[in-house]
Design a protein that fits this description.
Blueprint (H helix, E strand, L loop, with lengths): L12 E4 L6 E4 L7 E6 L3 E6 L3 H6 L2 H13 L8 E2 L5
Parallel strand pairs: 4-5
Antiparallel strand pairs: 1-2, 2-3, 3-4
Length: 87
């Protein structure tokens, strides 16, 4: 992952989970506007590209709450997607 903390697109790499800071995988495809993370603790989740700025400025508890909100609204999606509405 680059020094600015932005996950690298197009390659599965080991990184720090953007929610809990544990070891995770960046699964983001190169053509996806956002980030796809696979964390053993948090599970698989997406962060919509339009939410990235708000997500970066959020505290760890705010990020965890946003993931919780995204999970509760997941419906039939393959995994939760954190969007601005989740904050």
């Amino acid at each position: 992952m680059p020094e600015d903390g932005t996950p690298t697109h197009g390659a599965t790499i080991i990184m720090r989970c953007l929610v809990c800071a544990g070891e995770a995988k960046d699964l983001t495809p190169s053509n996806f506007d956002g980030h796809v993370i696979d964390c053993p603790s948090c599970g698989k989740y997406e962060i919509a590209g339009c939410t990235w700025g708000k997500f970066q400025s959020a505290s760890q508890p705010e990020r965890a709450a946003a993931l919780g909100n995204a999970t509760s609204l997941q419906g039939f999606c393959r995994w939760p997607t954190i969007k601005t509405i989740n904050f």
